[in-house]
Write a structure and sequence with these properties.
This protein is of the alpha+beta class and 146 residues long. Helix content is 19%, strand content 28%. The chain is built from 5 helices and 10 strands. A hairpin with an 8-residue loop joins strand 7 and strand 8.
Amino acid sequence: MTDDLRADAIKPQQIHADRPAHELRIDWADGHQSVFGFSSLRWLCPCAFCRGEAGQPGWLDSNPTLSDEQVTLSDISLVGHYAVQPVWADGHSSGFYSFEHLRRNCPCPAHGDGAAARRVDAAVVPPPTEAEAEAEQSPPHEHTHG
C-alpha cells in the first residue's frame, strides 16, 4: 500500500466484530474490505505497553505466545472518528487502533498477501491460533449419498 491514502480509504462504512469467526471486518468507503483475525489484530496493538516507548522494547517484541484470552475480543468501541479500541478477554484495552493504522496493515492479498498484518514494526507475527487456522481452512460441508 502506498504512503498516500485517500480520505475515503481510511473512512469505515461498517465495522463488524464476528466473535464466532474470530475476526474483525471493516468495509471502507472506497469499497475495499479488510478482515483481521483476532490474533493478527492483537499483534497489531499500537499501545506503549505492546509496542514499547522511550527506546524500550514493548511486550510484543519479546514474541510471546498469546493465550486464548489474549486473542478473544470482549468488546470494541469507537474512539472519536479516527480509531477503534478493542477490549481483550485478558483485560488489555489501552490500544487505540487508528483507521489509518488498520488500513495500512490490511491483511488482504491485494496488499501483499497479508504480509503487512503479520509484520509489525519488522517483527514477524506468529501464525494464527489453531482455531483461527481451522476457521480459515474449513472447506464447505459436502454431503455424499451412496
